[in-house]
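Per reviewer request, we include the raw input and output of the structure prediction for the construct analysed in the revised manuscript.
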Amino acid sequence: MFEKILIANRGEIAVRVIKTCRKLGIKSVSLYSDADKEALHVKMADEAYHIGASNPVKSYLCAPKIFNIAQMAQCDAIHPGYGFFSENVEFARECERYGLTFIGPPVEVLEKMSDKTRARRLMREAGVPVIPGCEYSIKDEFEAFEIAEDIGYPIMIKGVHTGGGRSIRLVKCEEELDEALHFSQMAAQRISGKSEVYIEKFIPNPFHVEVQLVADSHGNIVYLGERDCSVQRRNQKLIEEAPSPIVDSSLRKRIGEAAVKGAQSINYQSLGTMEFLINEDNNFYFIESNDRIQVEHPVTEMVTGIDLIGEQIRLAAGEELGYSQRDVRIKGWAIECRINAEDPTRNFLPSPGKITRMLIPKMPHIRIDSGVYTGYSVPPFYDSLISKVIAWGSDRLEAVARIKRALSEYVIEGIKTTIPYHLTHWSGGNNHISSH
């Protein structure tokens, strides 16, 4: 097992990793930018080092500084969290060069799956259902028009190397294609530094379901059920739950086994998810993989009792899974609401600033994953996610009742948050807002 892990991230995910490191008896090392010197992950870590200016390009995205600190602090592994370098092939390769373990999939797996068009091709070859579309980057607008004409409108344009949905554009007709193509290319360039995009068929009113995989380096892979991530806004997830309300035991087995088959075909190791869209006829289609821990991992932890961060660390250390597929049991229901520093009354405009008062709900079966506290100033330079509220119940009705109560008792003052949005959502029948 590792002795000291550097966490190449910030906020609530850095806090989450620190807590598991403590449980495993591993020392933790945090990084902080100018804006984050008073952040919770800095206060909680065994060691913390300044890494640069507030702009993430000069701090959290500056790989040479990260490796220098890792060597200086005598770390033996790096946990990338999510975002930043979590799925970056070159960063993982540099970890090897510096003698550091990258807590994530091997470089060769990241290489295969970081290009989403290649991932689609590999999954199709493995026999996993894939949404109709192209398996290579679009060269120009003329090729885009040909592909769109071939698969038929409406279509989706997506960044080849981007995650999080920010480069996605829905195109309903030929007249919208040129503008949407340029938008998606520019968004992809801004997010990933690469402008490549691809096209796939739009599926109306889909449910977005992801299968959590755990795979060791000894050939063992199991799936830990599924999460439903259909409630989204502008392709950004807002609410997640496990299990999915539309997945029965038969579909769970089929989609889980398809995810395992796809993972086996590329010799997947570590944690990860295979993401699928399920259409109105209950047919499922692979859309992409996420080769890292995800924001919504707590709901799977709540219904399986498995510490996914702990598993991720143990797998990176070369340990074998201590259970098989038949040992996995889904118990009850869990719901997660992402709390962002945004103003729902002003089109979810970011709301950075000082938190003047914060009261965390303390009740059975409620978990709060947070990176903030009373007196902390939320900086404007990073993702607006500041906290997550997770509720468990013996069934969905009980989980809904508990999440509503927890949200009503969660007080964050001084800034605007999405808590009122979530309260309205659950009070209004909690219908899915499906989105690609």
